[in-house]
Amino acid sequence: MTFVADGMLGNAAKWLRLAGYDALYFNTRRKSELVRIARRDGRILLTRDRKLFEENEGIAVFIESEGTSRQLREIKNKLLLEINPMMFFTRCSLCNSPLERKEKYDITALVPEYVYANRDKFSQCPECRRVYWDGDHCKAIRDALNELGEG
After folding, report:
1. Strand pairing of 122-124 and 131-133?
2. Based on the structure, what is the number of domains in the chain?
3. How many angstroms separate the CA atoms of 151 and 148, rounded?
């Protein structure tokens, strides 16, 4: 299942990426572009725009909730979305590209010295080049995603 989210669902798209889903996000006034991308790529259009939803019911899902956690729960329930811990942290949270595993010696100059000394597993986005590692904040993200999967 792949997605394209409108400008009102940017945080939800980021969290879908953290969960491992391919979720494009565009904050644009040109709603026709979102529809074009959804149709071209076979993506589900996630929107809080009722008119956009009504004009594109075959490809769009209307998200009524406010707040990221409620929106994610609504997306999960409406689409019977599977939350799989094996998929967590496999996509770039910024640009949506699949992450690539990197050897520690490959990222020496790209992370803070403390991180390099205390972490062994790294990933990098091939597009935006951002480097990821299992930092302290990842536990809170995992917990939130696991809770979403249970609810």
Report:
1. antiparallel
2. 2
3. 5
